[in-house]
Amino acid sequence: MAEIIQMDKNGRVVIPGKIRKKFRTRKFFLEANEDRIELIPVKSLESIFGTVPELDLPRIYREHEEEKDEE
Q1: Share of the chain residues as helix, strand and coil, in percent rounded to the nearest 5
Q2: pLDDT in tens, 8-37
Q3: CA 57, CA 46: separation in Å to the nearest integer?
Q4: Among candidates 52, 27, 54, which has minimal Cα distance to 41?
């Protein structure tokens, strides 16, 4: 699936709706090489919650924030 999109004067790019719906995420890993830019979708913890029932998301987020504060 390829589309031509345009960057605005602030450097923002809009990802077309049909592509956003396909990947169902708001986070992307951006990789820039010499001749191209790639956006790789990043799955949220919420999207994998059903696959790991013992996953305690509030605790994970809290611990992450505490670790950031210590740095």
Answers
A1: 40, 15, 45
A2: 999 999 999 888 888 888 888 999 999 999
A3: 8
A4: 27
| Cα(43)–Cα(49) distance, integer angstroms | 11
Could you tell me how many helices (H) and strands (E) the chain has, helices first? 3, 2
- How far apart, in whole angstroms, are the C-alpha atoms of residue 41 and residue 26? 8
Please list the residues that pair with 40 across neighbouring strands.
29
pTM score: 0.52
DSSP 4-71: ---B-TTS-BPPPHHHHHHH--S-EEEEE-SS-EEEEE---HHHHGGG-TT--HHHHHHHHHHHHHH-
Tokens of 25: 């995420």
